[in-house]
Structure formats: structure tokens, C-alpha cells
Amino acid sequence: MISIRTLLRSSAGDFIPLEDLPATSGDAFYVEGAIELRIDHKPIMGVREWDDVNHLWGYIGNMIDELRNSPTVETYFPSQPIHLSFQRDDNFIVVTCGDRRASAPADELLIAIRDEGIRFWNAMLKLAPDNAAEYKFQIEQLRASATER
Predict the structure, then answer these.
(1) Residue-range domain boundaries for the chain
(2) Residue of 18, 25, 32, 89 with fewest CB within 10 Å of its CB?
């Protein structure tokens, strides 16, 4: 079982589910937040790894795109020295974030990442419409990468 959701960090430092945030008054280029990823109920990513979540989603989209041609892809979080990697092993992907690691069925993981990423970028279209072209690009990249393996 895979669960993934995006939380945005409020000015008070609380983490608010994406759908509960009516608008943003901060810098649309640096959107603080976290991605919570659990694989078989095991936390892999969460609020302890909060960062510029819009950049992190962009990095993850690039990783999914690169995974089509490479068995291992990796990056670091935008503003923290946290290593994130995806390693394809037959029909599974091993996800490593810092010192946490789990394996998930490739199709299930890619669909979950695609769906939450698209949900995030669609919310950003409403929160910061001035960046619509970039957000639409990210949405299309996730759609293409998660379906063309």
C-alpha cells in the first residue's frame, strides 16, 4: 500500500494538507512544505524533510522521467542535504530517502506519484496562476513519464 500527500507549511510553521489551504500570500517561487510518502505503512518521507516543495515536486518529476531510461535515479532535496533515490528492480522500485528505504510495485508507486504530483501542480495553478506555464509543463511531464515505461 502506498500513500502520498503534499503538505504546505504555514507562516506559523504548521503543516496543512494541500486541499485545506485557501490561498498563499508567500513567495510562489519558494513554497515551503513536505511530501508524506508511506510504503506499506512505513514512513519514507515526511514533515521532518520539509523543503521548497514546489522544487522538490519538480525534481521528483524529473526523476520519474529519467527512470524510463535508467534503472537508478537520484537527487538531493532543494535546500537540504537529503538524498532521494529510486532504483528499479524488475517490477519494483526501491525508494531511499535519507536513512529510510522501502520497495513498492513499480506501477503502483508511479501512479501514486503521478496522481499526487498532478494534484499538487493543479493546486499551484490556483494558488499562483502567474506560473501557469511551468505548472502545466510539470503536469504533462508527470502524465507522460508515469505512463510510458
Answers:
(1) 2-147
(2) 25
